[in-house]
């Protein structure tokens, strides 16, 4: 087994659109020879992200009728050099990742 990092998945993007599919596999098991058997695909998450303006993105997530809007606010906006009032504040992608991890 190699310790080399896996290559990043290629996500097709055209005209500000980014689409991706994330596969989750069921747990793997060891066969009689100490090797792992591939698990079955348990879930496929298909997400489409559309660039709106500036830092704003609309993410179309499974199970939601309306897109989730990502942007920046406060310290995140300051870090990226946005001027106060330059863009309407929205939760950033990192906010959503932290919320998902805590949820």
Tell me what you see in this structure.
Helix content is 16%, strand content 32%. The chain has 103 residues and is of the alpha+beta class. It has one domain. A 5-stranded antiparallel β-sheet has the order 1-2-5-6-7, with no helix packed on it. Strands 3-4 form a two-stranded antiparallel ribbon. A hairpin with a 2-residue loop joins strand 1 (13-14) and strand 2. The two termini are 34 Å apart. Residues 5-16 have low confidence and may be disordered.
Strand percentage:
25-35%
H/E topology pattern:
EEEEEEEHH
Report mean pLDDT, rounded to a whole number. Answer: 76
End-to-end distance, in Å?
34 Å
Low-confidence stretches: 5-16
Proportion in helices: 10-25%
Number of helices: 2
Strand order in space, largest sheet: 1-2-5-6-7
Largest sheet: 5 strands, antiparallel
Structural class: alpha+beta
Number of domains: 1
Properties at a glance:
103 residues, alpha+beta, 5-stranded antiparallel beta sheet, two-stranded antiparallel sheet, 2 helices
Secondary-structure map with pairings?
Elements: E1 13-14, E2 17-25, E3 29-30, E4 36-37, E5 41-51, E6 57-60, E7 68-70, H1 74-79, H2 93-102
Antiparallel strand pairs: 1-2, 2-5, 3-4, 5-6, 6-7
Write a brief caption for the model.
The protein has 103 residues and is an alpha+beta fold. It contains two helices and seven strands, in the order E-E-E-E-E-E-E-H-H.
């Amino acid at each position: 087994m190699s310790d080399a990092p896996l290559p990043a998945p290629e996500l097709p993007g055209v005209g500000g659109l980014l689409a991706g599919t994330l596969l989750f596999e069921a747990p793997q098991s060891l066969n009689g020879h100490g090797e792992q058997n591939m698990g079955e695909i348990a879930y496929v998450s298909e997400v489409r992200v559309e660039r709106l303006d500036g830092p704003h993105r609309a993410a179309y997530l499974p199970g939601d009728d309306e897109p989730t809007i990502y942007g920046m606010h406060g310290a995140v906006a300051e870090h990226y050099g946005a001027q106060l009032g330059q863009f309407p504040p929205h939760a950033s992608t990192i906010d959503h990742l932290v919320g998902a991890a805590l949820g």
